[in-house]
């Protein structure tokens, strides 16, 4: 799964220790494959305080459950709260690609490239290229009609 869930993004600025511990527990649940429980735990944490990282984690768990509409809503909220959150953008792009929403995925991947370290940039650039490859036959077949 996307790396967002594997990192602790809580900075400690105004975020309660209890909420931080609950978020860590949600990460643990996700890592163990208890996606619905992770979503429930993150629902509680988000009611206490919304952050881009928490929304991204919630969306990632929804994506794992194939709840794509909820995942999209969560990724959009994460990026609204923190536009500089590359993990959310990459995860959202991956979800869009999994749904064959190639153009949107390419836009998401290309938008995040400048925010990434060189190794991650190469991987995400390759994902964007794979989407372009998928987009080409679609564009060719619709243009032939």
Which features would summarize this protein structure in a list?
mainly alpha, 7 helices, Serine Threonine Protein Phosphatase 5, Tetratricopeptide repeat, 0% strand, 145 residues
Describe the structure.
- This protein is an all-alpha fold and 145 residues long.
- It has a single domain, classed as Tetratricopeptide repeat domain (Serine Threonine Protein Phosphatase 5, Tetratricopeptide repeat).
- The protein has seven helices and no strands.
Question: Would you spell out the secondary-structure blueprint of this structure?
Answer:
Layout: H1 17-31, H2 35-48, H3 52-64, H4 68-81, H5 86-98, H6 102-112, H7 118-143
Helix pairs in contact: 1-2, 2-3, 3-4, 3-5, 4-5, 5-6, 6-7
Please outline what is shown here.
With about 140 residues, the protein is mostly helical. The chain is about 75% helix and about 0% strand. The chain has helices at about 15-30, 35-50, 50-65, 70-80, 85-100, 100-110, 120-145.
Order of helices and strands: HHHHHHH
CATH superfamily: Tetratricopeptide repeat domain
Mean pLDDT, all residues: 88
Number of domains: 1
**Number of strand segments:** 0
